[in-house]
Structure to design on (620 residues):
């Protein structure tokens, strides 16, 4: 199975070689990267249709002498180079390759204009290879090595052009690195319990304290990578400051695929969860949904708004895996793929708007639908999909999650008996998502066009083509969800799925399509030119042609409501930011220790005796 080596090593080696090429030939580096991604896409497809199994020692050492350096090196690597090619890893590898190709197409022209973004394609390809390595790794040591490298490339793919962007990059690196350290502790605990680093050989019970601790420490790594509460705060900061290609590649698609993939491994293969851990997952899932979408509602920066929605959607995936049923896990995986599709598209459309207008706030935009019709069409599809509007893919996976929650309530257990709460909050999150994307879409594309954008034109082919492809896939995955997508992609992973409700996605999609066509025919056939036009009045006064009301203003009442105003003020002070809280504790401790170092000998003697006393108490 040489493809297992090629798909990991080829992009990593190519990325290292690209460091040699100067930044002046960034277009050439982009084309070469796209070729490499295309080749790895071929390998990904070959692995997708290949026989599954555990592959150990895939390096050929027969041509080297047993006392040679290469033999000893490769033989040492083979001890850890163990690959698990199963239905889950096949699915993730396939979509990693797909999103990489799509985003590289977009990046060829967009990254060329990023003057301060150095070695983008080198880090992109290294990220691609290490992502494949993390997904295919069966050995936990091999897994955490690739996982750790991905944290470094995530840091390098955000350009530090000012203090805020540098702070966002540093925050990302510190949070990811801290979670990696916690994961290493978890791997050590798993070794103590299981005596092996092989993920395919694990089935750890969580009835003991050490089993629970092992699960929670590994869960921290999954949640931080995916961007779940409370380890999510790097995602909005990254989305606001990183280039569109980086945001679409990492927080929107790749990190979601990796983080949720590892969550699937934890819940499906590595651990047997007790009812309290199930309750923990359900609580964190719904809190992630509601908390993040409430923050998105009041954002004026549209990239930060998308960042919070990248967090909110993770909550649905966590709820799906928390259910623990075949339907729930399949729904969580389906929503993971769907989220990567429409969220990548939204970040690409936001990057296109920023590139064309130079604006980041919704109140500075408006009326771009006529100037950028293709971007508007794609963004409209993505907005409907993430909001769970049928027959698009976002509705299909959310509908499966809703069904899974109802079915989950039939069983005894603490989390099961609270099913109505999980269902109500999941549906509420979808409604609030729709509300915030009304603001997003109308704020950018609707309303009166600004005078400064009167000569604005649509982006080039390389800019809009990836968005159109993603929009078409969003439609297709929704229309054939129940007949093709779920049986073909997810049942091989979880087994046969039994639905408790009826959802014929192809039939509903066809009916909606017919209604749209009939509506267009009525519009074209009818004579609408004879409509009477009148002036618009606001408060008894003529509004005039230049009247405009920025869409964010409609959401000010939410931010000023009695309960929500307190929560929003606390969020502004970063009370819910685990990074800021930890930073404050560390700095406060450091300041306290600094004050203790006052140079007075008697104080040092007192500290010495206090320390000895504490040590004696511990030893006793």
């Amino acid at each position: 199975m040489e493809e297992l080596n090629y798909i990991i090593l080829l992009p990593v080696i190519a990325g290292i070689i690209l460091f040699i090429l100067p930044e002046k030939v960034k277009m050439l580096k982009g084309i070469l990267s796209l070729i490499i991604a295309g080749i790895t896409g071929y390998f990904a497809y070959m692995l997708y249709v290949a026989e599954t199994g555990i592959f150990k020692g895939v390096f050929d050492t027969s041509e080297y002498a047993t006392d040679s350096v290469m033999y000893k090196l490769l033989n040492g690597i083979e001890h850890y180079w163990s690959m698990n090619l199963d239905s889950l890893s096949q699915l993730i590898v396939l979509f990693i390759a797909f999103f990489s190709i799509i985003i590289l197409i977009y990046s060829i022209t967009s990254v060329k204009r990023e003057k301060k973004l150095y070695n983008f394609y080198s880090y992109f390809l290294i990220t691609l290879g290490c992502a494949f390595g993390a997904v295919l790794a069966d050995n936990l040591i091999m897994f955490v090595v690739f996982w750790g490298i991905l944290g470094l490339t995530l840091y390098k793919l955000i350009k530090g052009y000012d203090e805020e962007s540098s702070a966002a990059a540093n925050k990302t690196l510190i949070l990811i690195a801290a979670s990696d350290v916690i994961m290493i502790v978890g791997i050590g605990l798993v070794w103590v319990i299981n005596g092996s680093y092989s993920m395919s050989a694990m089935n750890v019970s969580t009835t003991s304290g050490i089993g629970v601790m092992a699960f929670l420490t590994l869960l921290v790594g999954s949640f931080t990578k995916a961007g779940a509460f409370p380890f999510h705060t790097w995602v909005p900061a990254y989305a606001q400051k990183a280039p569109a290609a980086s945001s679409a590649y990492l927080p929107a698609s790749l990190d979601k695929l990796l983080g949720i993939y590892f969550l699937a491994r934890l819940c499906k293969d590595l651990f047997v969860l007790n009812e309290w851990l199930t309750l923990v997952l359900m609580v964190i899932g719904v809190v992630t949904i509601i908390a993040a979408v409430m923050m998105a509602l009041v954002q004026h920066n549209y990239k930060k708004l998308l960042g919070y929605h990248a967090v909110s959607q993770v909550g649905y995936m966590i709820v799906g895996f928390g259910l623990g049923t075949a339907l729930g896990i399949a729904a969580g995986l389906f929503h993971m793929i769907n989220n990567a599709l429409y969220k990548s598209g939204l970040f690409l459309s936001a990057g296109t708007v920023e590139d064309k207008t130079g604006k980041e706030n919704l109140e500075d935009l408006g009326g771009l639908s006529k100037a950028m019709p293709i971007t508007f069409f794609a963004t409209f599809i993505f907005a409907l999909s993430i909001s769970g509007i049928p027959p698009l893919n976002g509705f299909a996976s959310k509908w499966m999650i809703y069904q899974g929650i109802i079915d989950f309530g039939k069983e005894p257990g603490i989390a099961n008996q609270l099913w109505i709460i999980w269902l109500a909050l999941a549906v509420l999150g979808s409604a609030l998502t729709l509300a915030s994307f009304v603001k997003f879409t109308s704020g950018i594309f609707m309303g009166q066009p600004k005078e400064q954008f009167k000569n604005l034109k649509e982006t080039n082919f390389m800019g809009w083509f990836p968005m159109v492809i993603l929009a078409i896939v969003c439609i297709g995955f929704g229309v054939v969800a129940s007949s093709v997508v779920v049986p073909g992609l997810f049942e091989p992973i979880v087994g046969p799925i039994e639905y408790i409700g009826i959802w014929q996605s192809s039939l509903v999609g066809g009916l909606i399509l017919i209604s749209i066509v009939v509506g267009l025919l009525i519009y074209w056939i009818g004579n609408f030119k004879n409509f009477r036009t009148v002036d618009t009045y606001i408060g008894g006064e003529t509004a005039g042609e230049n009247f405009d009301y920025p869409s964010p203003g409609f959401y000010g009442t939410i931010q000023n409501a009695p309960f929500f105003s307190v929560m929003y003020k606390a969020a502004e002070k970063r009370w819910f930011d685990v990074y800021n809280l930890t930073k404050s504790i560390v700095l406060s401790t450091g300041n306290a220790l600094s004050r203790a170092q006052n140079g007075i000998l008697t104080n040092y003697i007192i500290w010495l005796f206090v320390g000895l006393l504490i040590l004696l108490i511990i030893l006793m």
